[in-house]
Specification:
Elements: H1 2-20, H2 22-65, H3 70-77, H4 81-88
Length: 89
């Protein structure tokens, strides 16, 4: 317990020093904002990619149901025949 107290005291002192220094605080806040922005961008891009993939898969299945060949589906969807086969597996 004594060790925890020492670590907490050191962390508190470090926090006090950093809080007192406006430039360091602003730099910290800018880094945190950049990290949040990056994580938001990556999450948004991932969700958009998932939506696009689902829509493309739906289109592939719809074209297959219409009797199109794998080559025709690939051409219409602008993708490789191997990708069409992978979706249809």
């Amino acid at each position: 317990m004594a060790k925890e107290s020492i670590f907490l005291e050191e962390a508190y002192e470090t926090l006090q020093r950093l809080s007192a220094d406006d430039i360091k605080r602003l730099e910290y806040e800018a880094r945190e904002k950049a990290l949040r922005d990056h994580n938001s961008f990556v999450g948004s891009a991932r969700r958009q990619g998932e939506r696009n993939g689902i829509e493309l898969a739906k289109k592939v299945f719809k074209l297959q149901a219409q009797g199109k060949t794998e080559e025709e589906i690939a051409s219409e969807c602008r993708m490789d025949v191997e990708k069409v086969r992978e979706i249809l597996e």
